[in-house]
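Hi W., the heme C complex you wanted:
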Amino acid sequence: MSEKHNSAGDVKTTGHVWDDDLEDFTNQPPRWWMLGLTASALWVVVYWTMYPGIPVALAGTHFKGLGLPGLSLHLPGTDPKDDGKWSAIKELAQDQAVLDEVRGPYEAKLKTMTPAAILADAQLSEYVARSGKVLFADNCAACHGQNGVGTRQTGAKFAQREQGLMAPILLDDDWLYGGTIDTIHETISGGRQGMMVAHKDTLSVQQIDDVAKYVKAMSEEGGKEKADADPAVAAGMKVFAESDCTACHGADAKGMAAMGSANLTDKVWRFDGSLEGIKQTITYGVNSGDPSSRVAIMPNFVAAGKLSPVEIKKLAVYVFKFGGGKVDAPAAPAVAEGPAAAPAATN
Ligand code: HEC
Ligand code: HEC
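Structure:
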């Protein structure tokens, strides 16, 4: 390669000339740049030896790296020989260990405390509500809606205020199974499955029609008292009193928290509250086994092994804190045993 100088100055050229006067400069990159390039090429070698990466085709694995000074974390299920070696999982575990150190004291307390005690502790319940939000989004929101607002059936003609399509709204103070922190905790631990028998074989179409009209009347302005005095629904009132309805919904029709039977005297409908909808519920029941039955199953998360006891406590506090939770009644007088004395009117 001959050294030539171009007319513009003394910059060296490669010596090649095209089209008579077109020449290539041989400008060297600056020294600092060349040093940087060399250093990074060397760094690649250092990096490769420290970190895992180079595949070892014959062994069907990869070179695990020589490891990093200061990293000696042992992960269960790994070879102790690899303790000092870096992996993404180990980095995560180390970060988590830092978090656990902060959470540790809280989590330890939660293990032994009752949900009610957690709720009473302002700092703990604040902590719990935060992790509860994540647990709720992961496990519950699919049925109960984000933050318990319910999942809505778009385009449905619900005659009354809409309830959740899949599951009850948890934001309100209307509870099937009771809204104290303990009943909520019990619901989440064991799951729930309200059962109402189908009446298509025990009541005539006329009787179902009558009783449905009576039920609808009870939910309207004036409530049960007005419906009872209304001659237009007297036939239905008779069916209600004489058939099996009161056994589950109570003589006052306000439902029994012990069995999750709905309060029939309010405007909150778990299922379709139109006359046709009510007839459907009465005819085919709820979780009755009839193919047309309404389905209402709150899964048992403990049996499914999906939630730990602490996680369930967190969720109970979180759900209670939606605002609809009921504070336990102060020292109630001794209550007789049996479902008839179950805390009524909580629906
Ligand atoms: C597969 C859908 C589904 C999932 C998932 C689900 N639930 Fe439910 N949940 C229901 C249904 C349905 C009911 C009503 C049961 C009934 O009517 O008998 C219910 C009832 C409840 C109740 C009682 C409401 C009342 O009025 O007494 C609470 C509290 C509750 N769920 C909390 C939760 C929490 C917390 C989670 C997440 C861990 C969860 N649910 C996950 C379907 C679900
Ligand atoms: C074996 C107990 C049982 C009997 C008997 C029973 N119910 Fe029910 N009923 C329930 C339960 C439990 C629910 C709530 C289901 C749920 O939400 O999971 C319910 C729900 C309802 C609903 C729906 C309420 C809503 O909010 O959508 C209506 C309406 C109703 N019952 C009417 C009646 C009438 C009328 C009778 C008598 C002909 C009757 N039930 C007999 C247990 C019973």
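The two ends are 95 Å apart (CA to CA).

W.
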